[in-house]
Inverse folding.
């Protein structure tokens, strides 16, 4: 059983991720479309029982790196998969410094997503 938190402001991407993950994993997939709500949840809950966070990079209010920073303050160990449609060199460097676990580029193939998720959950 695995618990995955997915954060993305694009509702279609969020629904797609939920469908793929529901088919792929045993456990619960929690989705959030608002980065501010996600940060409040992380600060309050500390991600107790969360096995993986998948988060979009570009979102209104707070970007994925700000979400990652909030997570790392609470939990250094939980794997973090960053979704991006624009993986620049600067983003990769900043994300690595913030202790991102892995990246996946949008649009992604279901297989690529499930392979990264499997690897991160098994680590």
């Amino acid at each position: 059983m695995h618990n995955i938190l997915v954060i993305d402001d694009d509702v279609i991407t969020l629904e797609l991720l939920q469908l793929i993950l529901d088919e792929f994993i045993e456990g619960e997939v929690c989705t959030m479309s608002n980065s501010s709500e996600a940060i409040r949840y992380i600060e309050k809950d500390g991600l107790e029982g969360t096995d993986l966070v998948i988060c979009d990079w570009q979102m209104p209010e707070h970007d994925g790196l700000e979400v990652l920073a909030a997570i790392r303050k609470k939990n250094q160990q939980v794997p973090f998969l960053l979704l991006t449609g624009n993986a620049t060199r600067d983003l990769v460097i900043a994300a690595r410094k913030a202790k991102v676990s892995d990246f996946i580029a949008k649009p992604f193939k279901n297989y690529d997503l499930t392979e990264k998720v499997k690897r991160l959950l098994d680590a």
